[in-house]
Amino acid sequence: MNIALESRFAAELPELAVRWKAEDAPDPRLLVLNEPLARDLGLDPSWLSSPEGLALLVGTAVPADATPVAQGYAGHQFGNLVPRLGDGRALLLGELLDVSGGVRDLHLKGSGRTPFARGGDGLAAVGPMLREYVISEAMHALHIPTTRALAVVSTGRPVRRETVLPGAVLARVAASHVRVGSFQYAAMIAQAPGGDPDLLRRLADHAIARHHPAAAEADHRYLALFNAVIAAQADLVARWMLVGFIHGVMNTDNMTISGETIDYGPCAFMEAFDPATVYSSIDSWGRYAYGNQPAIALWNLARFAEALLPLFDEDTEKAVALAEASLGAFQGRYESAWSQGMRAKLGVPDAPAEVVDPLVGELLEQMKQSRVDHTSFYRRLGQAARGDAGPVRGEFVDLAAFDAWAGRWRALRPRADVMERVNPVYIPRNHLVEEALTAATDGDLGPVERLLEAVRSPFTERPGFERYAEPGAQEFAASFRTFCGT
Ligand code: AMP
Ligand code: MG
Description:
Blueprint: H1 8-12, E1 17-19, E2 29-33, H2 35-40, H3 45-48, H4 51-57, E3 69-71, E4 75-77, E5 80-82, E6 90-97, E7 103-109, H5 126-141, E8 148-160, E9 164-174, H6 180-191, H7 199-211, H8 221-243, E10 245-246, E11 268-269, H9 293-312, H10 316-327, H11 330-345, H12 353-370, H13 374-385, H14 390-393, H15 399-410, H16 416-422, H17 430-441, H18 446-456, H19 474-479
Antiparallel strand pairs: 1-3, 2-8, 4-5, 6-7, 7-9, 8-9, 10-11
Helix pairs in contact: 5-17, 5-18, 6-7, 6-9, 8-9, 8-10, 8-11, 9-10, 11-12, 12-15, 13-16, 17-18
The structure holds adenosine monophosphate and magnesium ion (MG).
GO molecular function: AMPylase activity; ATP binding; magnesium ion binding; manganese ion binding
Function: Nucleotidyltransferase involved in the post-translational modification of proteins. It can catalyze the addition of adenosine monophosphate (AMP) or uridine monophosphate (UMP) to a protein, resulting in modifications known as AMPylation and UMPylation.
Family: Belongs to the SELO family.
C-alpha cells in the first residue's frame, strides 16, 4: 500500500525537528488496531496488520519520501522550566490526509532513543501504551477532544523498569503535536545567537493554518491565535471536569495548541468526588489535583503568552497588556462551559444558570462529604428523575440535606433522557484498567478488549457489563497510584 505522508512540520520548522529513525523491533506483533480510525485515515486495516503494515507502525519501514523527525520542545514540569525536552522516545512520521481532507499527525511513542532522550532508554512497555489506547478511546467516545491511538504493536524487545517488561510502540494520531512547550522552545531558539528571529512567527503561522484558521482573518492574527487557544483549553478542561478526568501531568509540554487532550501518563478518572483527588505517584503537592486543573490550565496559558509576547507587540508593555486582557477571558469561558455542562448533567439544560449554579455548588459539597462516586451518581440521579429516588438517596449520609436538595432540583422538572445522553455509565475505572493491563502484560488481551467494548459506547447501558459500571473497592481506591513516563 502506498501511504502518502507529508512532511509539513519538518519542512516548515526545521529548527524544531531532528531527522531520526526508529530503533529496530526484533519481533513485531500487533496487539490492538483501531480499525474505524484506520478507515478514517484512508488506511486499510488488513494491510496495517500485514508485516509491511507492522513495519510502518513501529517505524522501521516508512515510505521512501517520508521524513520522520523527533520534535523539539521545552516545558514547565511541575512549575520548573526545562528548556530542552523534546521527543525522547517518540517520532513524528509525518502528516496524513484523512478521508475528509483533515491533516493528521502520524506519530510513534516508544520507538527508541532520540537526541532528546537525556537519561531515558527511549522505550515504552506494553502496559502503559495500552493504557493510552484504552483511555484515549474512552475520551473520544465521551466526545472529549483527544489524540487517538491507531495501534499498539509489541516489539519483542524487553524494557527494564522495576522489572523486565515486554516493549511496545504506540502509533498515535493527532491534529498536531504542537504544544505550549513548542512555542517556549521556539521563542528561546529565535532569541539565541544565530537564531532566526522569524521562527516564532513561522510556528504561529503553522499553528494558525492547522488549528485556528479563522485567526488568519483577524486584525491581529497572533492575538486571535492566543484567544482561540484560550477558548479551546477552557472548553477542554471543563469537559475533563464534567467527567471527572484527572490528567495528572499538566506540564506545558503536555498542553496542545489544537485543544486535544494529549499524553495519557498518570491520568485517571476520579471515583469518590473530592477536588483534592490526586493519583500520580510524583504529584506529592497535589499541583495537578482534580480541582486545580482549571487554574493550572490558566497558568500554562500565561506561559504560552510569555512565549508569544514578541508577536503581540514590539512594545513589551503593550504586549503584556494585550496578553493580560486575553487571559482575563479564560475564567468566564471556563465557567460558562462548566455551568452549561452541569445543567445538562442534572437534566435541566434550559434552567437559568443563576438558579442551577448554586444548586451545583451545594450538591458537590454533599457528594464530597459522602464520598459519592462521580460517575454512577448522575445515572442514579437520572433514575430519580424517572421516579425511583431510592438508589441515589442511599449514597448520602445526611439524608435530610439530600432530600432538601432533591426537592429543589425536582422543582426544575429534570429530564432523564437529557441526563442519559450526557452522563456515562462506563468510564475506564482504575481497578479495571489495572486488571486489564496486568492480563495483557501476561499475554491475555481479552480483558483489554472487553474494557474497550464497554468504554467505546459509554452512554448505553448493556447487560453483561454491570461490573464496568461500579466503582472499585474503597481499599483499592485509597492506595491506587499512577506513574509517569513509564
Ligand atoms: P512525558 O512525561 O511522557 O510527557 O515525558 C516527558 C519527557 O520525558 C519527554 O521529553 C519525553 O520524551 C521524555 N521521556 C519519557 N520517557 C522516556 C524514555 N523512556 N526515554 C526517553 N525519553 C523519555
Ligand atoms: Mg509529554
